[in-house]
Amino acid sequence: AQSVTQPDIHITVSEGASLELRCNYSYGATPYLFWYVQSPGQGLQLLLKYFSGDTLVQGIKGFEAEFKRSQSSFNLRKPSVHWSDAAEYFCAVGGSSNTGKLIFGQGTTLQVKP
Amino acid sequence: EAEVAQSPRYKITEKSQAVAFWCDPISGHATLYWYRQILGQGPELLVQFQDESVVDDSQLPKDRFSAERLKGVDSTLKIQPAELGDSAMYLCASSTGQGNTGELFFGEGSRLTVL
How much is the pLDDT for A95? Predict the structure, then answer.
């Protein structure tokens, strides 16, 4: 069955520190992978996506993610966190065989300390 | 910038009452999704439309939930009767409909509280 696991429910980092949010997926075919961000009370905004090609993808707001097929992972990184990055982050997986359905992880809440 | 519009943003109702949510996708987007997000969890797909046709409603509790997209544009999600466990954020999203090569654009959601 398709699934996404985000092992860290809550992460706290200091402003200016680096960040890595973990995502592991289970998918029978070639996955399409996404990271979305959700500010409190808001909808979801796409940060970046991976379909094929270069396994290191760049997104908006200085985020990047690396696809590692051998580890079934798609971890999100940012070299220097800003206070405005505090939000909830969701990893999602979909596949080329369907019409756009995404399966989301449970999310990781990021808190940024001044 | 084009956005997905949803209303109402907040709805408080008593159990056994009927509630309805409305979504207007980005113009030209053929695919429309309704997701439910329970507090502390990721969004879960309830129903997916391609134009006016339902593509996937396998996770929609059909005894109390219904969804329609009559003209293939805006959509309504209805719950009747509402139960305490329906308290959640209901998110609408749209995409161009070209499979997963496209991004899903989400609205701000409708937060439902059932008392």
Answer: 65
Any CB–CB contact under 8 A between B54 and chain A?
no
> For A100, which of B40, B42, B104 is closest by C-beta distance?
B104
Chain B contact present for A4, CB below 8 A? yes
Per-residue pLDDT of chain B (115 residues; tens, 9 = 90+): 679 999 999 999 999 999 999 999 999 998 999 999 998 899 999 999 999 999 899 999 999 999 999 888 999 999 999 999 999 999 999 988 665 556 789 999 999 999 9
* Beta pairing partners, B30: none
What does the pLDDT read at residue A29?
A: 75
User: Alpha helices of chain A — where are they, by DSSP H?
Assistant: none
**CB within 8 Å: B100 and A44:** no
> Does residue A31 have a cis peptide bond before it, meaning omega lies within 30 degrees of 0?
no
Nearest-CB residue to A107 (from B42, B104, B109): B42
Strands (E), chain B: 5-7, 10-13, 19-24, 31-37, 44-50, 53-56, 65-68, 75-79, 88-95, 105-106, 110-114
- Could you tell me which of B109, B100, B113 has the C-alpha nearest to residue B36? B109
Both tokens of B69, joined, read: 């997209």
